[in-house]
Automatic annotation (TrEMBL):
The keyword Secreted does not apply. This is ABC transporter substrate-binding protein. One of its GO terms (molecular function) is peptide transmembrane transporter activity. It comes from Streptomyces nodosus. GO terms for cellular component: ATP-binding cassette (ABC) transporter complex; periplasmic space.
Length: 572
């Protein structure tokens, strides 16, 4: 569903298209070598705890990119966002499994019209914002409208917008009436679609549908205090330093079976070095502490500590729907054969070591995996053990215009990503290419990748599966076209666009069918696109997240990639 920083729902070839994978490469499974399967089983700490009260202290190495649900495409914001905003439906996590879509603000998963072109939702009775004002259908509509103002909200999720029947709308600040949603009364929301969309309930679990009271909208400043519709509200927020959430006494638990809301408060420290986070959690210096940082904030050098009995019994774990990749900027590295040569030269087994080894994730052979609905075998020439194929890479480059220098950008909060760059430097040096490493502030990382400063190569991550694991939730955001199908999509970091394949993806968005049927078509198109190597799959993450000894119900979300804050509790 979202970017993994430290990590979106997608849309759904016309039925008559015949799609075949490119020849010459061998089918491969979704992951390479690794420990036996049970080594990746989910581990939940303090399961089924129901005690209320106490404080959870969330240790983080950097601030949230944003707390504004309407400007967020990040798993960390989605995770903490569960505490202070609600959406029409919700992606409910279960450790080790793709999430399930359940009703949240709405009474059910929606009612489609006979032709599939409208979906109608009814809000539950008695819903209120933190100030006591009722939550109405107009607040839902306004929340969606804000995400159309792309000149203001550069990271607003767009998958829902792509499906709605109003491409000309530019947001609520420029005037005009939004025709994609009707609100016939205070509890009814009617969505108008361009074409039928079988999995529409998944789209309205996105943060677009978090209600926003128009009178409280402060545009970009809204991130400082989004108005709560969930069980907690922001008491204080010192950007880059700390935040405190307290109970929202206007939240009615009877309307919300999805969030346990056990702790009285959540405190966040937002500038602790990852090495310090790792040390504090392992030492249990704060028995109420957790982290949302990637891989539980653990450093590769800390892996042995996980074997200690006291640490092991406090380590939640789970194989995620999150995969890290290398993105090639197809606007600067234009030749597909050059990109393939670079991909073959990467020592992915050495990259896995920088992630902490097999304990921290499987080698991935594809961005999609066999747990996702509609998965079909993918074709790749990458070695399943991760070893480089330098001889093949050099042959591909013969007679080609090969760049002498390339730039690799990485998020600066985690030394792992710089170390990956060092591996790439060594690999590409053998091809006669000088790779320069460029640190990018973590807080602005994906904004940079989406803008004019995108380097030649960058690491990114994606947590797919917010609609219970459909293939399209990974393919369309990462390699799909723009809303109108004329260029690459807003979260398509490689800037991949092929007139034939991208057009087929655009048409597939409006094709009706089951998730399995559509997923197979998405997977086939993805396989075709990947023959030009716009990206290189690296690691499918297994997160080990050490928690304080008083923390309970600590599960690693398949989608969130960190401790699921909506169910966590604390013994006190």
């Amino acid at each position: 569903m979202k970017r993994s920083t430290m990590a979106a729902i997608a849309l759904t070839v016309s039925a008559g298209l015949a799609l075949t994978a490119c020849g010459g490469a061998k089918p491969t499974p979704d992951s390479g070598s690794g420990p036996r399967a049970d080594a990746y089983a989910p581990v939940v700490i303090g399961k089924n705890y129901t005690g209320k009260g106490g404080n959870i202290n969330v240790l983080m190495s950097s601030d949230f990119q944003t707390l504004d649900a309407g400007n967020s495409n990040y798993v960390q914001t989605a995770n903490v966002g569960q505490l202070y905003y609600r959406t029409l439906t919700m992606a409910k996590e279960t450790a080790g499994k793709p999430p399930t879509i359940v009703p949240d603000l709405a009474t059910d998963l929606g009612k489609p019209s006979a032709d599939g072109l409208t979906w109608t939702y009814t809000l539950k009775a008695g819903l209120k914002f933190e100030d006591g004002t009722p939550i109405t259908s107009k607040d839902i509509k306004y929340g969606v409208e804000r995400t159309y103002a792309r000149d203001v909200y550069t990271q607003a999720p767009q998958e829902l917008n792509t499906a709605l029947a109003d491409d000309s709308y530019k947001g609520p600040y420029t005037g005009g009436d939004f025709k994609g949603i009707d609100t016939p009364d205070d509890r009814t929301v009617v969505f108008h679609l361009k074409q039928p969309f079988a999995e529409f309930p998944a789209l309205v679990s996105r943060s677009n549908t978090a209600p926003v009271p128009k009178a409280k909208d402060t545009k970009l400043d809204y991130t400082n205090h989004p108005v709560s519709s969930g069980p907690y509200k922001i008491q204080s927020y010192d950007r880059g330093r700390s935040m405190k959430l307290v109970r929202n006494n206007q939240w009615n638990a009877a309307t919300d079976p999805n969030r346990t809301a056990l702790p009285d408060t959540f405190t966040f420290t937002l500038s602790t070095a990852q090495a310090t986070i790792s040390q504090q959690l392992i030492a249990d210096s704060d028995p109420t502490a957790v982290t949302l940082d990637s891989n539980g904030g653990l450093q590769a050098s800390d892996a042995a500590e996980l074997n200690k009995p006291d640490v092991k019994k406090r380590t939640a774990g789970g194989l995620l729907g999150c995969t890290d990749v290398l993105d090639f900027n197809t606007e600067t590295i234009k030749d597909p054969q050059v990109r393939k040569a670079l991909a073959l030269a990467v020592d992915r087994s050495a990259v896995q070591v920088q992630y902490g080894g097999e304990r921290f994730g499987k080698l991935a052979q594809s961005y999609i995996n066999s747990a996702q609905r509609g998965y079909v075998e993918q074709h790749t020439d990458l070695d399943p053990t991760g070893k480089p194929k330098l001889d093949e890479a050099k042959k591909l480059l013969k007679g080609k215009s090969v760049p002498k220098k390339l730039v690799y950008g990485y998020a600066d909060a985690n030394p792992r990503y710089k170390n990956v760059g060092t591996v790439l430097q060594q690999n590409f040096k053998q091809l006669g290419i000088d790779l320069q490493l460029r640190p990018i502030p973590t807080a602005n990382y994906y904004t940079v990748l989406a803008g004019d400063q995108m380097p030649d190569i960058a690491r990114s991550g994606w947590c797919g599966g917010a609609d219970s694991g459909s293939v399209r939730t990974t393919v369309d955001p990462n390699l799909g076209p723009s809303v109108d199908g004329t260029t690459y999509g807003f979260s398509n970091i490689p800037r991949y666009y092929d007139p034939k394949i991208s057009r087929a993806m655009y048409e597939l968005r409006g094709t009706n069918g089951t998730s399995e049927e559509l997923g197979k078509k998405w997977a086939t198109l993805f396989d075709q696109a990947m023959q030009t190597y716009p990206l290189v799959p690296l690691i499918r993450s297994y997160t080990n997240s050490v928690v304080g000894s008083k923390v309970r119900n600590a599960q690693v979300g398949y989608f969130f990639g960190g401790i699921d804050l909506s169910v966590v509790g604390v013994q006190h």
